[in-house]
Amino acid sequence: MAQIKFEHVSKRFGDVAVIENLDLHIRDQEFMVFVGPSGCGKSTALRMIAGLEEISGGTLSIGDRVVNDVHPKDRDVAMVFQSYALYPHMTVRENIAFGLKIRKLPQAEIDGLVNEAATMLGLTEYLDRKPRALSGGQRQRVALGRAIVRKPSVFLFDEPLSNLDAELRVTMRAEISKLQRRMKVTTVYVTHDQVEAMTMGDRIAVLAPLKRHPSGNLMQVGTPLELYDRPQNLFVARFIGTPSMNIVEMAVDADGTALRFHDFVLPVPAAYRGGIGAYAGRNVAVGFRPEHVGHAEEHQWDTISPIRGEVEIVETLGHEAIIHFRVGGSMVIGKIRGHGVVLPRLGEAIDLVVKASSIHLFDPQTEQRLPEA
Q1: Exposed, middle or buried: residue 143 (CB in 10 Å: 0-12, 13-18, 19+)?
Q2: Chain centroid to CA 291
Q3: What average pLDDT does the chain have?
Q4: Is 148 in the same domain as 251?
Q5: Based on the structure, what is the number of domains in the chain?
Q6: CB 362 within 8 A of CB 237
Q7: Does residue 332 lie in a domain region?
Q8: Handedness of CA 337, 343, 346, 348 (dihedral sign)
Q9: Could you tell me which of 363, 37, 56, 48 has the C-alpha nearest to residue 217?
Q10: I need a labelling partner for 40 at 20 to 30 A (CA). Which of 70, 240, 254, 339 fits?
């Protein structure tokens, strides 16, 4: 078993707190992604698993063993860094085998493990090349091979694809995901890219900087669809999804049935009506995704509300266009068909609709999701 448990873990550098009260259970054989902006502590948390950072408080376990004071080499983990960190004077074969030679394994066993990893990663024909003769993707595969041959109980990835171009990142995302499923090794992957997180992780842990959320870094843990469909706070709502979720503060009617902002009116979804009464006459933060804003004739939505604004940006992507338009003092983003239509011009008024049944409601003070029936 290679489950990983953070129990009330904290990390401080002198007087500066980076991680506070982190409670997280990573299941055996799970692919867990840590995602968040710079300064949220995701790489620090990964380095604590590896033993490269000491824990300031709390307990960290790998399997059934507390590893707070266990040396990195005794934790049975393998780490792949953002930098390939290959030895330029060594061949691919020698780079992959280096750690095994340090452990003084028999040469026949080393050769077998290296050949097995090279076959798995499509590196067999490159084993006698030096790193300078490889592409960026091939170098990253060598770094993966160096980790694979150790047959660890835990794989750790610290933003391993950030140095690759966009097309290669997509390819390597798929390869790492397939490799993890094949090897069935507990994996923790750090990224700031929420698209990587959504496409790779069994579950995702969304972290925020302590300066924004002093009570703790961990905002929400869940499957990609759980985070997308039911963000538990405004931080997750804004962070997960591309383009980001629209957030507009709207007033709750006295009878708790409608939300209003200028001429924009939304019915309160049935799921929220039981608890919305406490907010009557007050503002709530209303979230709705750009894909739920568009032309009425392009969709078969059950409940729609009209929204009008002034176009400020048009992003043409071919199959669709992303429209940024201003409603009162708020910027709203919608998506419309990109082909066979006349796209709006900057500065003109646009009339779209919002899928009212798909909105999310949050308390603007606590930033937490409002309770649902």
Answers
A1: buried
A2: 19
A3: 93
A4: no
A5: 2
A6: yes
A7: yes
A8: negative
A9: 37
A10: 70
Starting at the edge strand that comes first in sequence, how are the strands of the sheet with 65-66 ordered?
16-26, 4-13, 57-62, 65-66
Residue (of 3, 10, 70, 348) closest to 210 by Cα position: 10
Split at pLDDT 50, 70, 90, the class of 277 is: confident
Residues 42 and 123 in one domain: yes
CA dist 232 → 216, 218, 221, 372 (Å): 15, 11, 10, 11
Q: In terms of DSSP bridges, do strands 57-62 and 65-66 run parallel, antiparallel, or are they unpaired?
A: antiparallel
Tell me if residue 73 falls in helix, strand or coil.
helix
Token duo for residue 334: 């919608």
Q: pLDDT tens digits for 96-110?
A: 999 889 888 999 999
In-domain check, residue 346: yes
Estimate to the nearest angstrom the gap between the alpha carbon of 177 and the chain centroid: 14
136 — pLDDT class (breaks 50, 70, 90): confident
172 and 258 both lie in a single domain: no
The answer as to whether 372 is a domain residue is: no
> CA angle at residue 156 from 154 to 160, to 5 degrees?
150
Q: What is the DSSP string of 181-229?
A: HHHT-EEEEEES-HHHHHHH-SEEEEE--TTT-TT-SEEEEE-HHHHHH
**Residue 359 to residue 279: CA distance in whole angstroms:** 16
Tokens linked to 25: 């259970």
Domain containing residue 223: 4-237
For residue 206, what is the domain's CATH number?
Answer: 3.40.50.300
Residues 179 and 51 occupy one common structural domain: yes
Using alpha carbons, select from 315, 307, 312 the residue that is nearest to residue 286. 307
Tens-place pLDDT, residues 31-58: 999 999 999 999 999 999 999 999 999 9
pTM of the model: 0.91
Backbone angles phi, psi at 185, to 5 degrees: -110, 135
At 1, the pLDDT band (50, 70, 90 cuts) reads low
The label of the residue with tokens 């997180």 reads: 197
CA angle at 144 for the pair 142 and 149, rounded to the nearest 5°: 95
| Contact indicator for 230, 273 with CB cutoff of 8 Å | no
